[in-house]
Amino acid sequence: MTKNGWRKIRNQTLTAMSCLLMLNSLAQKVPDKIVILTFDDGCVSHYTYVAPLLKKYGFGATFFVCEFPGYPDSTKYMSWKQIQQLFREGFEIGNHTGHHTNINQLSPDSLREELAFVNRHCDTEWIPKPINFAYPAYVTDSSNLDVLRTMGIHSARTGGERAYHPATDNPMYVPSFTPGDNLQKTIDAIRQAKDGAVAVLTIHGVPDSAHPWVTTSPAVFEAALQYLRKYHYRVWSMRDLQEYLDKAGSIEK
Ligand SMILES: [Zn+2]
After folding, report:
1. How far is the CA of 220 from the centre of ligand 1 (A)?
2. Cα of 164 to ligand 1 centre, how many Å?
3. Which residues contact 122 (CB under 8 A, 6 or more apart)?
């Protein structure tokens, strides 16, 4: 083999090794036992029950909000004033489209308008423009990623029933677990927060009077919070995780 041939192979090997080291160091930046709680659909129980309980435990969370037909039915959904209160109490508000529309059914302009609908309400309520998005019904659409990005979305959560690996997963497709009203499934999901993986949970109303098929009972929810506290999990919003990763990245540099 020629000298140049060897040099090429050596350079390729070094590039591959440095990529692996980079991935490895990012994986190491995520400690075990980080759980992200996300709550979808602007259910009124998020305001009346979930947030006060999370505060009691000192846990963070992201609330992905939208308006459903029937809004503002105060027996089912939060008002924008109540959403503002969640923000003032330290929780993150995320965008779930204005009207819970699957994004593969939207043109780029309609998706922009759906995102802007939530942004305008946030602006009126002095809530920062959401940087995190949750796909309605977990339906993703790669042709619309640029719209999400240009509207200021940093990461987007979907379903998938698996843990999130920040070192290797695309942040525009953050996977999550939806354990519903099943405590064992919730605990099984939580326990996957290790080895560079973060457990992201998607929860709807506790209970969910608007969509009972995705409800979680207060008993199951509180048992899950007790489990998280007992085993010393860190419970964050999506924004908390991003800030942590950014900080870890800048220390590394
Ligand atoms: Zn939803």
Report:
1. 20
2. 19
3. 93, 128, 129, 130
Query: In this structure, what token pair is assigned to residue 242?
Result: 């991003």
Ligand 1 geometric centre to CA of 161 (Å): 16
Placement of tokens 């029933």 in the chain: 161
What would be the CATH architecture of the domain defined by 31-252? Alpha-Beta Barrel (3.20)
Ligand 1 centre and the CA of 46: distance in Å? 13
Q: What is the mean pLDDT of each run of 10 residues along the chain (253 residues)?
A: 59 51 56 98 98 98 94 92 98 98 96 98 98 98 96 98 97 98 98 97 96 96 98 98 88 55
The whole-model pTM stands at 0.89
Given a contact cutoff of 8 angstroms between Cβ atoms, the answer to whether 42 and 83 are in contact is: yes
User: What separation in Å is there between the alpha carbon of 1 and the centre of ligand 1?
Assistant: 59
